[in-house]
Design a protein that fits this description.
The chain is built from twelve helices and 20 strands. With 435 residues, it is an alpha/beta fold. The chain binds inosinic acid.
């Protein structure tokens, strides 16, 4: 089984980091291939909790080669901070980390633009993580104003920065002059200074130099050598730029479709895709979430599941499991098996609900709508299941779970149409059952 991928099937935060960490043992290389420092992974190892953002969760196993591939947008300050923090905690980071020279670099103008365009355009804001992700991907696709990691080491880097800063300052100035006061963004009036940005990024470039490599070539060699590679998706399939709940999505292909363009590895190499879901639904940021419970029940799930963003600390919107959405994303990401996380959070409820279809304009719909306005109108049709009272965090064998918990898992599997292979009842590696 050379190639395995771990993909979130909801709106992110499905606790993928734990599964990546567990499966890393059986792999030689772990690859992050899309997104950036908008992602947050929590890994608990030997009773210690680590928060990761850009660095693959494989970093805790010294035998594993970690790769940040070209599809990632790299915030140098953020990754340097992460590296320093892990080094301080005695985690080895050296030639076990490779950063693609093709990855696009996030600059201060991307963060500024994120703050501006998050709110312009009318309607509900996207509610981004404000990490400059979207604007950096915009420049990547636009090409003329993009800077990749390799460019940081080129003789024309200074000239590039000067030219781009010139253009960005004009754009921001134009926006400031034309904005009415309600759209005025604090900090936007500050002019970007090419010289200081250049110096700052030259410093980052030197710090990152030991890790920079042609990761596409490295991974293609690894494929030829039949190495076991684990691909670690960030965010969730429903946030996919092309197939998610547009425009309330992230700016990369966060479903299974992003593995190949982000890493450069050919599709046939992948032998298994594991889709990760929570036993319920969460979402951060804007956009519809049909099964959201904006009531005591939602609060109860949030508090029991500690549902606050790893990166932004924002409280997550919580609700019942949405089998319509997950059936769609499981097919989209081509998953072979499902891992159900945080089942323990649902202990104590008298009954539980799973959304099996939507009603849109009086019609029963069993597929996930492609248009956001249809999803906004979707009223969930629920199936009610019996709950269980027992705490299950100490259960280590699937057979020992309460009968209603097993029935809940069985229904998820039936409704999504994929086998459930892993059930997690807590953050520790030991709180995991393989079916
Ligand atoms: P961006 O990726 O910062 O542009 O944010 C776009 C949308 O994706 C917002 O709704 C964010 O809350 C959401 N998002 C981005 N990264 C994550 C994540 O790691 N988990 C959950 N939601 C995310």
């Amino acid at each position: 089984m050379p190639g395995t991928a771990i993909i979130g099937l909801q709106w992110g935060d499905e606790a993928k980091g734990k599964i990546v960490d567990l499966l890393t043992e059986q792999h030689e290389i772990v690859v992050r291939y899309q997104g950036g420092a908008n992602a947050g992974h929590t890994v608990v190892t030997n009773g210690k909790e680590f928060k990761l953002s850009l660095i693959p969760s494989g970093i805790f196993r010294p035998h594993v080669q970690c790769v940040i591939a070209g599809g990632v947008v790299l915030d140098p300050a953020s990754i340097i901070k992460e590296i320093d923090s892990l080094l301080k905690q005695n985690i080895k980071i050296g030639n076990n980390l490779l950063i693609s020279n093709r990855a696009h670099v996030i600059f201060p103008w991307h963060n500024l633009a994120d703050r501006i365009f998050n709110n312009i355009g009318g309607g509900e804001p996207i509610g981004t993580t404000l990490r400059g992700i979207g604007p950096c991907y915009e420049d990547k696709v636009g090409r003329a104003l993009a800077i990749r990691v390799a460019d940081l080491y080129q003789p024309d880097f200074k000239e590039k920065i000067e030219n781009i800063v010139g253009v960005k300052n004009q754009l921001f100035l134009g926006l400031t002059n034309n904005c009415d006061n309600t759209m005025r963004i604090p900090g936007l009036d500050v002019e970007l200074d090419a010289e200081s940005i250049y110096k700052e990024y030259c410093g980052y470039a030197e710090q990152l130099r030991p890790y920079v490599a042609d990761t596409t070539n490295y991974l293609l060699d690894a494929v030829d050598a039949d190495k076991r590679i684990l691909f670690e998706g960030a965010q969730g399939s429903l946030l996919d730029i092309d197939h998610g709940t547009f425009p309330y999505v992230t700016s990369s292909n966060s479903s299974g479709t992003g593995i190949f363009n982000g890493s450069g590895v050919p599709p046939h190499f992948l032998k298994k895709i594991i889709g990760v879901v929570k036993a319920y639904t969460t979402r951060v940021g804007g956009g519809p979430c049909p099964t959201e419970q904006s009531n005591d029940l939602g609060t109860q799930i949030r508090e029991r599941g500690r549902e606050y963003g790893t990166v932004t600390k924002r409280p997550r919107r919580c609700g019942w499991f949405d089998a319509v959405a997950v059936r769609y994303s499981a097919r989209l990401s081509g998953v072979d098996a499902i891992s159900v996380m945080l089942l323990d959070v649902l202990s104590g409820f008298d009954s539980l609900q799973i959304c099996t279809a939507y009603e849109i304009d009086g019609q029963r719909i069993e597929y996930f709508p492609s248009l956001i306005n249809d999803l906004r109108k979707a009223v969930p049709i629920y199936e009610t299941l019996p709950g269980w009272k027992e705490e299950i965090t100490a259960v280590t064998k699937y057979d020992d779970l309460p009968v209603n918990a097993k029935y809940y898992i069985k229904r998820i599997s039936e409704l999504v149409g994929k086998p459930v292979e892993i059930v997690s009842v807590g953050p520790d590696r030991l709180q995991t059952m393989f079916l």
